[in-house]
Structures are given as structure tokens and as C-alpha cells.
Amino acid sequence: MNRHIPGALAELGHGEGVLVYDAGMPIPRGPRVVDLAFRAGVSSFAEVVDGLLAELVVEGATAASEVREANPGASALLDDHFPKLELVSHERLKELSAGARLVVRTGEARPYANVLLRCGVFFQAAFQELCR
């Protein structure tokens, strides 16, 4: 376990961004960075996304439209997890990533394996569950 992840996740608030990115995407200046890259492919994009989704409530996700053609595996993973995935150009995703509160670098070596998650509110989901 990476000791920095729990603390970084605990600091996130509603609407704040978490960028999960591959080994090739430039790291934006400003946000807190947790580097999970060990070597090419480790930690994978899928592992990190799955792990974060187990801990976060996510109300939206944005990825680069280029993922559709360049990386069908990452594209399918994003579609499975985010039915309302917003697609923008890779350049626009890089611009948006500068506003993220947290960036998590993976060791993913396939192109365009990046997603900007928008945090939801955990107590809203808990409240809805209690009301069932």
C-alpha cells in the first residue's frame, strides 16, 4: 500500500479533480502528486482506476477522445466504469489537469490511458442507501 493515497483521498472535496495518468503524460504543476509507477505497466491504469473507484464517489469523468482509436483496452475500461464519460482533445485534457487537486501517476505504457475524475459526495450516496 502506498501510504500517501489514503491521506490524499481524505483531503478531497466535492467537485475536486483526481487525474489518473499514464507514464507519458506531463505532470501538471501545482496539484499533489502520488507516483505509483514502478516500471512499464506496473501499476496499470486499470488497477489504479479500480482501486480509486473502491474508495471514491465519482460524479463525472473526462478522458481524451484519442483513447478511442489509440487504446481500445483503456477505452473499454472507461466506458465500463463511466457511462457518461466526457471526451475532449488530449490537449484540452492536459489543460484541465492543471486544475486537479490530486494526480496519480501509473506505470501504464499504453497511450492515452488518462482520466480526470470529478469527486462526488460520499454522504449523499450513504444517505440514499439508508433511505432504501
What's the quick description here?
The protein is about 35% helix and about 20% strand.
C-alpha termini separation: 34 Å
Structure class: alpha/beta
Strand neighbour order, sheet with most strands? 2-5-1-6-3-4
Overall mean pLDDT score?
Answer: 91
Indicate the low-confidence ranges by residue numbers. Answer: none
> What percent of the residues sit in helical stretches (DSSP H or I)?
25-40%
Characterize the overall form: globular
Query: How much is the radius of gyration in Å?
Result: 14 Å
Sketch the topology as an H/E string, one letter per element.
Answer: HEEHEHHEHEEH
Major sheet attributes: 6 strands, mixed
Total strands: the figure is: 6
β-strand amount: 15-25%
Number of H/I helices: 6
